[in-house]
Amino acid sequence: MGTKPHISMTQFAKLHGPLISLRLGTQLLVVGSSPEAAAEILRTHDRLLSARYILKIMFAGGVDLNRVSLMWAPQCNERWKVLRSLCKAELFSPKAIESQTLLREMKMVEMVEFLGSREGQVVKVKQVVSATAFNVLANLVFSKDLTRFEDGECDGSNNGLKGILERLTDLGTRPNLADFFPILGNLDIHGIYKHSLVYLKQAYAEWEDLIKDRRRARGQDASSKRRDFLDAMIENEFADDQINHLIIVSLIT
């Protein structure tokens, strides 16, 4: 399919119609490329076709996805429903989105001020915007910035937490033979599993102390006011591995 599979899919659809199947290794991929096919898949038969293939990299670290994951859980069990309800209430409800208005405005002001301070200099606007969006998400989770414009995150060096998560995302989007031939899963031919473990440990270390401090603070004052998504997870008695996984998903997506 080349380096631009979406274009290849378009060409296939022109030749073979709006609904085609492809055999990728041992996996069968069905592609719907017309509005009618999309409606059939996503609306008419959504319950039947709502399952997803879980990439091998998602199991890095031996994580139990049914217990900790919202996006990649193999089953929509009771735990998944709890995670969905929590995320909806704390992050995606109209009330939650409205409460984030001031935060978004503040981060936009900071971005504009930073760009103004670099007048006459070369600035990678894409990196600045990306860092701003990252800090918006970080504040929703931790009530604090996790990257600074001055730390090299905006010049492409990517040495901080944002860079770690970008490298994790890159690993997750790389073609992996184990996804097409599951029998090869334990071999880690491309080293994707090994490298993802390294980056996951680095990411967890970035906020490990934040979680400990927040648990300690809430233990000393159980009536303390909830501030962010981390407080909500601790209040709902989430274990550290559950918190880590949800934070990763929140910051990457």
UniProtKB/TrEMBL annotation:
Which keywords does this chain's UniProt record carry? Answer: Heme, Iron, Metal-binding, Oxidoreductase
Q: Which domain of life is it from?
A: Eukaryota
Any one Gene Ontology molecular-function term assigned to this protein's record: iron ion binding
**Cofactors:** heme
Write down the Pfam families for this protein, in alphabetical order: p450
Q: Which family does it belong to?
A: Belongs to the cytochrome P450 family.
Q: What is this protein called?
A: Cytochrome P
Organism for this UniProt entry: Parasponia andersonii (Sponia andersonii)
